Amino acid sequence: MDLSEEKELVRQAQKAPDAFAKLYDQYYPKIFGYVLRRTANLEAAQDITSETFLKALRKLWQFR
């Protein structure tokens, strides 16, 4: 996915929160994998990844 596609997904998610699922599906494996490697703890990685997406969703309106 290139930068213009990412921006378009964010714009869609800003207008319709259901579209956030596309961003989640795209980035969850990468973020979870990174956090799991850093923590070496499955439960912590799941929690941190969930918190990351929750923060992203709450701040989505700030994206330009």
Written account of the structure:
- The mean pLDDT is 92.
- The protein has three helices and no strands.
- 3% of the residues are buried.
- α2 packs antiparallel against α3 (42-59).
- With 64 residues, it is mainly α.
Domain unit count: 1
Shape: elongated
Q: Helical content, roughly?
A: over 70%
Oligomer description: single chain
Tell me, rounded to a whole number, the average pLDDT. 92
Major β-sheet profile:
none
Number of helices: 3
Structural class: mainly alpha
Helix and strand element order:
HHH
Question: Count the strands?
Answer: 0
**Uncertain stretches of 5 or more adjacent residues:** none
Rg (CA only): 13 Å
Strand content: under 5%
Span between N and C termini? 18 Å
